[in-house]
Amino acid sequence: MYKHILIPTDGSDLSMRAARNAIDLAKLCKAKVTAIHVIAPYQTIAYMGALLAATEYAYNQEAQSQAEHYLGEVRAMAETEGVALECEVITNQQPFEAIVNSVASKQCDLVVMGSNGRRGMTRLLLGSETHKVLLRSDVPVLVCH
Length: 145
What we know:
The protein is built from five helices and five strands; from the N terminus they run βαβαβαβααβ. It is an alpha/beta fold. Helix 1 links the parallel strand 1 and strand 2 (32-39).
């Protein structure tokens, strides 16, 4: 069955539910799990260098703190079930790209992620990271609604 499952998480209830499903599946399959959180790089839209540098530092600190919190929740789930887990924080403008690259670099054979719940015009304009992963992944993707 599956030997290495990738869990991309954004900290939402839906992604945590997907993480729970992935860990349960990993326990059944005796698979290892890698959980990732993708941070978008800081975007500057103004000037005044010193102020922006402080803002960028604060953004990076907060993003890293949130990532560690989200991955810590997944780590706690895995430890409870006795599932081997590796965690990684990745910085990338395109989360789907980081997810697909992680599948290849870590030789995962399944991705388990939540759907984002966007509907209508918002989905058309912004797209869905889950949908982009589905289109580009070379391995199966289990989407948890």
